[in-house]
Design goal:
Helix content: 25-40%
Number of domains: 2
Mean pLDDT: 92
Strand content: 15-25%
Low-confidence stretches: 1-5
Structural class: alpha/beta
Strand order of the largest sheet: 3-2-1-4-5-8-9
Shape: globular
CATH architecture of the largest domain: 3-Layer(aba) Sandwich
CATH topology of the largest domain: Rossmann fold
Order of helices and strands: EHEHEHHEEEEHHEHEEEHEHEHEHEHHH
CATH superfamily of the largest domain: Glycogen Phosphorylase B
Distance between the termini: 20 Å
CATH class of the largest domain: Alpha Beta
Length: 422
């Protein structure tokens, strides 16, 4: 039952990955929202799956991280490890951790249950768990898991998906086919969710195109205001440079970007990140002297990379649900050069904060214009910064989220949440 007006709300976030047991992306977004709610006086409990992270990372457990008061984190792990992850993947329900999740949901008496990436914490059956008649239940589509067994609509690990070939595609990804997808389990459990959220208008359209029949609200990712810096970060690279930040996977589109820097004397390319495609990208760059791979870097080094870049490249070749790197660049008043696919064109063109390209010629032209025109970089950077402030900042998006919660609560007669957006 919702609290009386003005009282803090109790949120439960259910997700597969959460820092420090994560690979970036959605997990960072989940933590960002959880902490933003806590700063506004609400209470948040996060439940995430450690077993799956261990199976996929094959690394020692990371050091624990301290969360602020009001934010409680439950990491689910068992001695079954890989078997636990496989059972959830195959049957679409929390076979091993179901009892532990049920205890958290029962004891927490949550006002809002928010499902994030639930693929490995419980699958479709998780949507039916927990809550009473006045509990608001939300689902945020960080990826395209609702319509794609591999989550990313990147067919056969080489191209955007334009036609379903799911069995062949799962074999290409070396993943066992998900048995539950042939049973109607997902469709039978969708009615438990009050509102589905997409991160961009493009993602909402793509879900509908691939057969998802529930309406979706668009609620983007956000960034908080950057911390004040006592001094400017030390320059990480002597020459002028463009910056790429992200996982090094084929879907991220660097394969045809790196050759564009051959015979391009005006600036270098700094690549921040790591991934399964890193060795191939280094091979492609072996004859391109002005490309530098930095690997994973500290937050301090990353801030310095952003602070001194000419612009940020976002060349994703597949269907992202949102362009988080785009708003990271905009917050730093940096122009963006993005491939014309997915949600990137709608973000870059509507903001006036950069250029989009469809082929290597257009990419080289954009790079040359930005490298040679400081006034242009400043104008685009200011436009991007204003778009971040008015559309993708914490102070804009989180009140929209709380208003959405209040709207859904009113539909269920839980009027006590109406003051929550203050």
């Amino acid at each position: 039952m919702m609290e009386e007006p003005g009282k803090p709300l109790r949120f439960c976030f259910l997700t597969t990955f959460y820092p420090p047991f994560h690979f970036g992306g959605d997990a960072i977004g989940v933590r960002r929202l959880a902490r933003a709610l806590v700063r506004r006086g609400h209470e948040v409990t996060v439940v995430h799956d450690v077993d799956t992270w261990r199976v996929l990372s094959r690394k020692p457990d990371p050091a624990p991280e301290t969360e602020p008061g009001g934010l409680t984190v439950h990491g689910l792990s068992s001695r079954l490890g890989a078997l636990s992850a496989l059972l959830t993947q195959q049957f679409g329900r929390p076979v091993v951790h179901g009892a532990a999740i049920a205890r958290v949901l029962e004891q927490g008496r949550f006002d809002v249950i928010h499902y994030h990436n639930v693929s490995q914490i419980g699958g479709p059956a998780l949507l039916a768990m927990g809550g009473g008649p006045q509990t608001v239940k939300l689902y945020f589509a960080h990826e395209h898991w609702l319509v794609c067994p591999t989550h990313v609509l990147w067919r056969h690990r080489r191209e955007p998906c334009v036609e379903r070939q799911c069995l062949r595609c799962q074999i290409a990804y070396r993943r066992p086919p998900q048995l539950w997808r042939k049973t109607g389990l997902l469709e039978r459990n969708l009615h438990h969710v009050d509102c589905f959220l997409a991160a961009s208008e493009f993602s909402r359209r793509k879900h509908a195109e691939f057969g998802f029949q529930r309406d979706m609200e668009v609620l983007p990712y956000f960034l908080p205001g950057e911390p004040g810096r006592a001094t400017a970060p030390k320059r990480p690279h002597e020459r002028p440079y463009f910056l790429f930040v992200g996982r090094l996977e084929r879907m991220k589109g660097l394969d045809d970007v790196i050759p564009a820097f051959a015979n391009f004397p005006d600036a270098d390319l700094l690549v921040v990140g790591d991934g399964t495609h890193a060795l191939e990208l280094r091979r492609i760059a072996s004859g391109v002297r002005n490309v530098r791979f930095l690997g994973r870097v500290s937050d301090e080094t990353l801030a310095a990379c952003y602070a001194h870049a000419l612009a940020v490249l976002v060349p994703s070749a597949g269907y992202e649900t949102f362009g988080l790197t785009v708003i990271e660049a905009f917050r730093e008043s940096l122009p963006v050069v993005a491939r014309a696919i997915g949600p990137l064109p709608e973000m870059v063109e509507s903001s006036g904060g950069g250029f989009v390209f469809e082929n290597p010629g257009e990419l080289r032209a954009a790079l040359a214009r930005l490298a040679g025109d400081a006034e242009l970089r400043g104008r685009l950077g200011r436009a991007g910064r204003e778009a971040w402030r008015t559309r993708w900042s914490e102070d804009v998006v989180v009140p929209r989220y709380l208003d959405l919660v209040a709207r859904e609560a009113r539909k269920k007669g839980a009027s006590g949440v109406q003051a929550a957006s203050s």
